[in-house]
Amino acid sequence: MAAGWAVFIGGSGIAHTLPASVSGMARSLGLAAAGLLLGNLSGRILGLQRRLDAGGRSLSRHLPNQAGTPGGVRGVLSIGVLLALNPVLIPAAIEDGLEHRWMGLALKSALDAAALGAWTRSLSPRRWSLTLLPALGVVLLWQTCWTAGAMASARWLQGKGIADAVMMASSLLILCSAPAIAGIRRAALADLLPTLFWIPTLALWLPRR
After folding, report:
1. Domain residue limits, the chain
2. Which of 1, 13, 54, 209 is the residue whose CA sits 20 to 30 A from 63?
3. Residue 2 to residues 7, 82, 91, 180, Cα–Cα distance (Å)
4. Nearest CA among 40, 17, 53, 61 for reference residue 164
5. 10-33 per-position pLDDT tens digit
6. Bigger pLDDT: 20 or 34?
7. DSSP 131
């Protein structure tokens, strides 16, 4: 179900940015492919996925143990940070900001709350109830910052003529997350994050003729 939503949101976002002309469509798709390749290469050189995995393992030491003992405030916040480090949250929040969709942010926050409750119950038989709020707050704050930043810079991006390129990059990353969400194959999604830089940069360097 979640993978289907990723395909729908990513695919519709890409379709929304494509020009009507065949030549413009080919140019946009070519820039997207080149930006994705450069983004993946940059991410691998920087070791983004490796660093993210290492940070996740470090934070996991503060999670509640199998005996059902919560990890205290540090454990609750560690859960929030682990969820916030999900690479898919960044392009999704940027897409919401560019489209001025605060309702999308609210909906994702509700889904995060449900996922957070299910995850913590699987980690520990105890019900944490209100102690989960700080963890959810971390995720919500992280998403809000990216959404508000994209919303604030939307007019500037439009003035530079790269707003559609940013939307294309965000939608493409969401689409690329679908196989990993479906469990078909494990993808190093963090290594793809530089795509958010490369596609708009290529669009800026290679203006339409």
Report:
1. 2-205
2. 1
3. 9, 19, 16, 10
4. 17
5. 888 898 888 888 888 999 999 999
6. 34
7. G
Residue type (1 letter), 203: A
* Closest listed residue to residue 200, CA positions, set 149, 154, 148: 154
Q: What distance in Å separates the CA atoms of residue 175 and residue 111, rounded to the nearest whole number?
A: 19
Residue with tokens 């709350």: 113
Q: How far apart are CA 78 and CA 154, in angstroms?
A: 32
pTM of the model: 0.76
From residue 154, alpha-carbon distances to 99, 141, 170, 182, 203 in Å are 9, 20, 14, 32, 16
Could you tell me where the DSSP H helices lie in 89-190? 89-98, 102-123, 133-160, 163-176, 178-182
Which residues, 6 or more positions from 108, have their beta carbon under 8 angstroms from its beta carbon?
Answer: 92, 96, 143
Q: Which class for 110: exposed (0-12), middle (13-18), buried (19 or more C-beta within 10 A)? A: exposed
Give me the residue label for tokens 């939608």: 171
Tokens 């449900």 correspond to what residue? 114
Query: Which tokens sit at 147?
Result: 């959404």
